[in-house]
Recover the amino acids of this structure.
């Protein structure tokens, strides 16, 4: 049975969270670390942008400041995500059998099986989003939000997207991170992403609530962040048949994380400007 590192790093800033994910991807890609499952949280709450999104086009920066939300760009693609009361997972591994066959869809499929097992353990009979869903006309805020657009391998319950994920591949390795919200405030999400500011947040939030989901919305008893982390880790171990060994980021990973915070994730030019500018810094 293969051994993976299990990192439960708790709450941290948006910049630190994204920098550590990239630092771990580098160590796995270089062959100096076995695969990693990292579970973490966000403090303060934050909006993360997909790598190719431009901040001022998809985020209401004034609303984010008013709401106390950090804004950060991910190294992965996809759309904007509000991170608040959630568990975020990051899988960092080589694209090698038996778990990951070396394709984007293969990686997503393997991890989707874990997420499906996890959600069904709570009695939520989820199915995969994406191809079978009919196109929906969306407002600007809805178009920007990851959780309004379920991809093929993401989990949907009662028509609402329950998980969101994004991926980056590098030198034969990949990073996939994703969100499992326990609670979600649709009004806050709408306000953060409504760049036009022309729609009442209460009305916009009600529209978003028909498309996005969160775990405690449907469970008879609310679950805690710690309980979700433990169950999710157990589902990864059982589904992928791996041993998860508790660990902490190594000194070199922490140094690289600090560098990435300075160079990228703590830098407004990286987080908010268009990708053409980001490639120059």
């Amino acid at each position: 049975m293969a051994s993976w590192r299990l990192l439960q790093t708790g709450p941290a800033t948006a910049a630190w969270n994204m920098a550590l994910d990239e630092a771990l991807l580098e160590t796995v890609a270089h062959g100096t670390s076995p695969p990693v499952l990292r579970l973490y949280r966000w403090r303060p709450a934050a909006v993360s942008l997909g790598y190719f999104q431009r901040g001022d086009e998809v985020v209401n920066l004034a609303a984010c400041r008013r709401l106390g939300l950090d804004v950060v760009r991910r190294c992965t693609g996809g759309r904007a995500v509000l991170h608040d009361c959630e568990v975020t997972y990051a899988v960092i591994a080589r694209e090698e059998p038996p778990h990951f066959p070396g394709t984007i869809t293969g990686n997503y499929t393997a991890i989707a099986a874990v997420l499906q097992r996890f959600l069904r353990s709570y009695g939520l009979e989820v199915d995969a989003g994406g191809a079978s869903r009919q196109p929906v006309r969306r407002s600007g805020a809805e178009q920007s939000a990851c959780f309004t657009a379920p991809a093929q391998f993401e989990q949907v319950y009662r028509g609402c997207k329950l998980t969101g994920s994004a991926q980056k591949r590098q030198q034969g390795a990949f990073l996939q991170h994703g969100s499992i919200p326990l609670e979600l405030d649709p009004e806050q999400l709408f306000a953060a992403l409504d760049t036009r500011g022309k729609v009442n947040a209460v009305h916009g939030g009600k529209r978003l609530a028909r498309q996005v989901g969160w775990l405690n919305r449907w469970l008879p008893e609310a679950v805690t962040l710690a309980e979700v982390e433990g169950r999710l880790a157990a589902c990864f171990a059982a589904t992928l048949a791996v041993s998860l060994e508790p660990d902490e980021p190594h000194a070199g990973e922490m140094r690289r994380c600090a560098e990435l915070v300075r160079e990228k994730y703590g830098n407004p030019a990286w987080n908010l400007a268009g990708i053409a500018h980001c490639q120059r810094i």
